Amino acid sequence: MLRVYENSLSIAMLGLLLLAFTGHLVTGARAFNAEQAAHGQPAVSTLGFLFRSEFWFQSLQNWQSEFLAVGALVVLSVYLRQRGSTESKPVHAPHQATGAG
User: Fold this and answer.
1) Residue 89: left if φ>0, alpha if ψ -120 to 50, beta else—which one?
2) Which DSSP helix (H) or strand (E) runs through 6?
3) H or E element: which one contains 88?
4) What CA–CA distance (Å, rounded) separates 83 from 48?
């Protein structure tokens, strides 16, 4: 359990990245297929949309995700710990030894 807590910031950030990436993939594929249907074009699968240039263009141009990532990093870094981080106390150190509490 200590090993998970030591790397909780990295785990949380990776989880948020995967969640955002998956959400964008699914909703982007739905929107793309709706547009395809409106033009009489065949639909693509969600996995197929992953390999289309439209998906990557949208992903790389999504500036809002940059602000979300920075905000999440700031907020989560206050509450979570990363082993070896110069900004945090030793993960397993008691509060008495670090001056907290």
Assistant:
1) beta
2) helix 2-6
3) none
4) 38
Between CA 49 and CA 31 the distance in angstroms is 11
pTM, full prediction: 0.61
Strand positions, DSSP E, 3-97: none
* Tokens describing residue 42: 């065949």
Are residues 82 and 9 in contact, defined by beta-carbon separation less than 8 angstroms? Answer: yes
Average pLDDT over residues 32-36: 96
Number of other CB atoms surrounding residue 29 within 10 Å: 21
- pLDDT tops 70 at residue 101: no
For residues 69 and 83, the model is more confident at: 69
Tell me how far apart the 2 most distant CA atoms of the chain are, in Å.
68
Question: Per the structure block, which two tokens stand in for 92?
Answer: 């397993």
> Which conformational region is residue 40 in: left (phi greater than 0), alpha (psi within -120 to 50 degrees), or beta?
left
